[in-house]
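Cont'd.
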Amino acid sequence: MEMGSGIDYRLISTDDHIIEPPDVWEGRLEAKFQDRAPHVIEVDDMDYWVFEGKQIPNIGLSVMAGRPYEEYSPKPVRFSDMRKGCYDPRERLRDMDRDGVEISALFPTVTGMAGTLFGECEDKELALRCLQTYNDWLADTWCAADPKRFVGQMIVPIWDLDLAVEELQRGIGLGHRALSFPNAPESLGLPNIGDPHWDPLWDAVEEAGLPVSMHIASGSMRNSPLPLAVAAGTPAEVFVTVAPSSNFVSVAPLLWSGALVKHPKLRFLSVEGGIGWIGYLIQRADEVYVKHRHWTRSVLKEKPSFYFKRQLYANFLDDEVGLAIRHHIGVDNIMFEVDYPHSDTTFPNSQELVAQRFKDIPADETRKIVRSNAIEFFDLDVE
Amino acid sequence: MEMGSGIDYRLISTDDHIIEPPDVWEGRLEAKFQDRAPHVIEVDDMDYWVFEGKQIPNIGLSVMAGRPYEEYSPKPVRFSDMRKGCYDPRERLRDMDRDGVEISALFPTVTGMAGTLFGECEDKELALRCLQTYNDWLADTWCAADPKRFVGQMIVPIWDLDLAVEELQRGIGLGHRALSFPNAPESLGLPNIGDPHWDPLWDAVEEAGLPVSMHIASGSMRNSPLPLAVAAGTPAEVFVTVAPSSNFVSVAPLLWSGALVKHPKLRFLSVEGGIGWIGYLIQRADEVYVKHRHWTRSVLKEKPSFYFKRQLYANFLDDEVGLAIRHHIGVDNIMFEVDYPHSDTTFPNSQELVAQRFKDIPADETRKIVRSNAIEFFDLDVE
Ligand SMILES: [Mn+2]
Ligand SMILES: [Mn+2]
Ligand SMILES: [Mn+2]
Ligand SMILES: [Mn+2]
C-alpha cells in the first residue's frame, strides 16, 4: 500500500485569515455611512481600526506567520510591520506557493470571524451596509485576484434572519462559497446553534447547497461560555490550550439538537478546533444515545455518529493524536488547514509537516484529508 | 505477545459511590449539632435529606446500577426502591464479587463528592463537625467492613486551609487513602485548582504521600464553569455528553499552574472524565509550550507532558478511543473505574467489557490499566 508521504500535489487549506487593509470600506458606502464605516487611524505610532467608538488594534498573535516563536507576542502590530501576505492577496498567493498550498478558505479579522462586530452596532442600517461591503470587497479584491485559489466565506446579519437570508443569496451571487457562522451564538445573546430559531437560515443554506464554517472564538470573546470561564485566574497558556477544543460548544449541540435531522443536507465545519478530541466526543455521544435516550426522549432517529458522518466536518493544523484515531472520526470528515497568518500556522512548513505526519497513512486517505475532502466540501472546480 | 483478554485476576475500580444510608450522622455528634446534622425525612412518599433548610433527594440517575436503560430516569428514588449495594457495604461487596471487582475507591453523595455541601453552610463549626463525622462514619462502617477492598477517600474543610490540613491528618489516622478535592473550586467562589492559595494543603498532601481525586462535577453544579454554560438552552444530552471531558477545568490549569513543579510528588486523578480527549490535551499543551512559552513566560521547566506523566492520572469506564491512543497518554497514567451505582456504570458486566475492550492490548498493559496502576496510586496492600 502506498503511504502518504509521496505527495505530488498541492494542499488545500480550509482556514486562513485576511488581515483587512485600511481601505476595505473606503469609497464603497453611501455618504451618510462612509465616515462611520470602519477606518484606520494612527495613535502613538500604532494603527487602530475605529468603529462606533471602539478602537481595535491588530493583535500580534494574529500576524505571526513566518516569525520565530521567540518573537511571538500579543502586542499590537502596525500594518508596516506585518508580512505583506497578511493583507495583500497577491503576496498571499506567493506565500501559498512557497508553502505548497493551492487553495485557501478565507476568514475576516476586524469584523469578527463571523461578522459579529456589526451585530453589536446599534444602528442596524449602518451595520448591514458595512457587513455587505465586506462581502463585496472580499469578492472584488481577494477572490477576484484568483477565483480558483481563494474560497470566499461570507458573513451575514445574523441579528435579522430575513436580512441574513437575503445577504446569503447576494453573497452567493458574488461568488462566495461558504457561510462563516459564530461557533457560540449564545455568547452574543442569541439562541444556541442548535436552536430552531435558526431554521429559516438553515433552510436557505441547505437549499443553496452551501457549507457553514464555525471558527473557534468566532462568537463574543467576552461572553464565550467556555475558554474564558476555564481561564479565569489561570495562566495565559490555559486559554491557548483549551481554545481549540472549546468548539464542542458547537459540535455537541449540533449533534443533539435535531437541526441535522431536519436539515439532512446542511454541512458544518468545526474550524481550528483540532480533531484529537472529536473521536472521543462522537463515542461519548453514541454511548449517551444508547444509555440515556429513553429518559431524554432524544429527537434523533439514529446514533449521533450517523449524523456526524453525514453532516459534520472538522479541520486541524498539526494533530498526530487526531490522525491516529482518524477512523473513529471518519477520513471523509476531516481536513487540513494552515491558519495563515496566525501564531499556530503551519506556514511555511506545511508540505514538510504533512509529509512527516502522514508518512504512515495510506496515500488515498492522505489525499482526502489534505485535499479532496475540501474540494467536495466547498464544491471547488479542481481535481 | 499475550493479549489482555485472558484476565485471571480481579479488577480495581477507581471510582464508585456510596449512597449514604439515613443513619450516617445519627448519634455521632454533640447534642447542640445533632438535630442540625443531615437527616432523612419522608415527604409525599419520597425520602429527602435535610440540611440547613435544603431538601435533597437521591437522583434516579445516581442509583441505576443493574437496571435496564429503558428504566433510566433522573426522578428521585427512595431507599426502599434502591439496589441494596447502593447503601449497604456488605451488599456492595457481594455486587463487587458478581462484577469481578476486588477493590473499590469510594466517593460520598449527599455531602457532594468533595464535601462541598458543608462549604455552603454558614455555621462553620456545624459544617466542620458534620464533615468530620462523614470521614469517621466512612472509616467505621464501609472501610471497617473490609479494609482491603474499600479505599476510603476523605473530604476536608477546604474553606479553611488550617482546618483542612488538620482534618487531612486525622483522616489519614482513620485509614483513608486519598483526598477527594473539587475539580472546579472556582465554581465555589474559591481560587482555581492551580492557584498558590492551595499550597499549604498540597504541602501536607505531598508530605503524607496521599493522592488527590478530582471527580467530574464535584464543584458546584450551579456555577460550574463548563457543562452548564454549554448546556444552556440545549437538550439534556448535551450536558451528559460533555460532563466527563469538562474535567479539563482541572487538568489544564494543573498542567500550567506550576503547582506540579512546586510539588513534584503531588499526584492527581481526573475521575470519570474519560481518557479519549486527554491525548489531545497533552499534545496541545506541548504545542503551546513550544510556540507560546516565550511570551507567556511559562513557569514550567519542562514540557507539560513531562508533568502529566509524572503526576497526573485519569480514569475511564468504557473508552475505546482512549485505549487506542493510550501511548499518547501513558499506560502508567490511566485506570479503570466502574462508577457503581451511577447510570454509566459498567456493573454487572465489567469483566466482560474489559475482556472485550482489551482483547488486542498486551497483557502487561492491560494489567496495569485495570489493576496495578491503582495499587500503586492508592498504595494498596495487594499484588
Ligand atoms: Mn483560523
Ligand atoms: Mn487561528
Ligand atoms: Mn463517579
Ligand atoms: Mn457517575
